[in-house]
Amino acid sequence: MRKYLWSDGQIPTLDNHSKCKHEIIRDYLTKYLEIVSQPLNRFPNRSLKITIVDGFAGGGKYQYQDNIVDGSPLILLNTVAEAKAGIRSLNPKTPIQFEEDFIFVEKNQQTAQYLQGEIRKEGFQNKSQVLCGEFGHYLPTIIAQIKKKSNNRQDGRSIFILDQYGYSDVLIKQIKCILNNSNAEIILTFAVDALITYLDESKQNALSRIGFSQKDFQQFRRNQSNRDKCRSIIQHRMSSIFYGLNYFFTPFFIISDNSKSQGGYWLIHISRHYRARQEMVGLHWDKGNISQHYGTSGINMLGYRSKFDEDYTKQLTLPHSSFRFDVAASQQTHEALHREIGNYLYKNIQSGSAITVKKLKQGITNHTPGSDQDIQKALDSLKEEKSITIKGNANSDKRIITVERQLVIKMG
Ligand SMILES: C[S@@+](CC[C@H](N)C(=O)[O-])C[C@H]1O[C@@H](n2cnc3c(N)ncnc32)[C@H](O)[C@@H]1O
After folding, report:
1. DSSP strand pairing (67-70 vs 61-64)
2. Over the range 130-154, which residues count as b (16 or more CB within 10 Å of their CB) and which as e?
3. Distance 106 CA to ligand 1 centre (A)
4. What number is the average pLDDT over the span 206-229?
5. Domain 16-292 maps to which CATH number in 3.40.50.150, 3.40.605.10, 2.40.10.10, 3.20.20.140?
6. Beta strands of 175-325 (E only): which ranges?
7. Distance CA 358, CA 300 (A)
8. Which of 11, 107, 114 to mutate to test the pocket of ligand 1 (most atoms within 8 A of CB)?
9. How confident is the model over 264-294, as pLDDT tens digits?
10. How far is the CA of 58 from the centre of ligand 1 (A)?
11. CA 368 to ligand 1 centroid distance, Å
């Protein structure tokens, strides 16, 4: 696998996939800060306490074409500084306070020193800690620090950027530990194309540590020459682990140039909030062609059984061509959501019973590449054609859906 080395006079080159990944991190963090600060703006003395952890920090700078550009630590520092200035300017007389801290973990000593130098050059040293060593080693201390900073779980927010070097350095038990102990969101990457390229028998143990069974491994080996098929196997097999966490999550790929290029990432975003999932899925749509998904477009995108819809699920064969969050994918999504949400409601909401819009959306969101607007659009068109009724205040998620019994939609 490619080495990332930072030392005086030498910095690594950033590839297009990583540039796209950085854009997603930057844009998501900006949105996140805008959203979580909104309720605080009404209470002048309140402060936003947030800890941002970059578990695989690198040296902070890259060569990209003819320019030197920021790596994830400096992106995080600069994005928070810019967002903070923007948010405080909305309410200049009594701006909300920010208590932001940054923790950067980097295993390589030379790289950690390089990063420290870059942080100092840009004047961020007071808010930042650079820890030299393995992320797993420091995790308990980091969690203790976040807890100490919070009065309660709600106000001690944190975001963990786990942009690991390969695919096996972040363990599922570490993810559970982060989620169970703090009000955290996680952006996790797997360097899937590197895994596909360099896979051999010696990798089986590392893969079993992240939940890959022996059968998955063998299936992977048999299909190693087919990159799309391997990405599809990863998304289908490994998503079951993330479904098991019972959090909101997105499991899509970031692949910049074309399907033949070899540096793509699988990017997982995990949060306890429906809104957070919607913002991330919205970014995948906004970024269009750099995002990919190897499943279907409705409410059963990876073929897992939704507890909401035991009857509906059919055994899927793994798709090997991808869904690219483009105009064609959007059209497919609208059609599939209209058909499948209609079917789901017809089969599951008995005569005389009902479901709230909120419960429906929360139940299906992890199972669709569609956004909140896409789900809403499907509900609106079902209502318009009089297949369902929706009662309650416009735009409220407490509205109640009932099904008109004459609804007949063919199973797609
Ligand atoms: C891909 S590079 C840096 C990426 C960085 N997030 C960015 O986008 O700028 C990954 C870095 O993780 C470091 N690393 C590898 N294993 C690690 C571990 N277990 N704990 C902490 N850092 C690690 C490597 O030394 C390397 O500098």
Report:
1. antiparallel
2. bbbeebeebbeebbebbeebbeeee
3. 6
4. 85
5. 3.40.50.150
6. 183-190, 248-254, 265-271, 291-292
7. 18
8. 107
9. 899 999 999 999 999 999 999 998 778 999 9
10. 5
11. 31
- In the chain, domain spans: 16-292, 327-403
Residues within a 6 A CB radius of ligand 1:
4, 54, 56-58, 71-72, 105-108, 111, 134-135, 163, 165, 169
pTM (predicted TM-score): 0.92
Residue whose CA is at the smallest distance from ligand 1 atom 9: 71
- For residue 82, how many other CB atoms are within 10 A of its CB? 14
Residue of 206, 217, 233 lying closest to 317 (CA atoms):
233
> What whole-number distance in Å separates Cα of residue 292 and Cα of residue 259?
10
Ligand 1: which residue has its CA nearest to atom 6?
Answer: 57
- The answer to whether 73 touches 104, Cβ cutoff 8 Å, is yes
Ligand 1 centre distance from Cα of residue 280 (Å): 23
CA-nearest residue, atom 8 of ligand 1: 72
10: nearest Cα among 55, 54, 70, 59? 59
Q: State the Cα–Cα distance between residues 211 and 172, nearest whole angstrom.
A: 8
CATH dotted code for 327-403 = 1.10.10.10
pLDDT digits (tens, 9 = 90+) for 220-239: 889 888 888 888 888 888 88
What percentage of the chain reaches a pLDDT higher than 90? 56
